[in-house]
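Hey, I'm writing a tutorial for new members on how sequence and structure tokens pair up, and I'd like a real worked example in the thread rather than a made-up one. If someone can provide the structure for the chain below, I'll link this post from the tutorial.
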Amino acid sequence: MTHDELKILVIDENAIRASIIEEGLREAGHSHVTIVHTVKGIARIIESSAPDVIIIDLENPDRDMLEHLFQLSRSISRPIAMFVDRADTQSIAAAVEAGVSAYIVDGLKKERVKPILDMAVIRFRAFEKLQTELAQARTALEDRKVIERAKGILMKMRCLSEEEAFTLMRQTAMNEKKKLAEIAQSVVTAAGLLM
């Protein structure tokens, strides 16, 4: 998806500030821009408009509003750029923890909107890639643990060498067109029922 095809949702209670963001986005070639002037019912709006990127502009966010937006950002998986007039360390940390990709303090100028949007999208994609790689690494580690347990069970129950146990599981996986980890989990489950 190219940048000009991005569907962008701008959440801003101040119409003047929202128009600055919209103008900056349109000048940068973004034509799919939706402006919302309230955070009430925003979850429903996000669900119905299905934006690719969300820009939130808060002049003076209070703790309740920030917490509401942060809970929302945790539940969606999209790049979020947030403009605020002032912030404290705690608010910044909470925003980053909640998944805000770009947190800009006192930086609302139309010419800055495009680079900030680009940075938010790139940062989000990089973070998403790291999350995927981490999940894959955890799965691979869990698979290895299960395979090792299954090998131990087969070695003990069938008096096989480690290599023979592994070969038996691998051959069974190929015959049944399953992953080795699935066969290993079946061995571990069956042994749990029999012991």
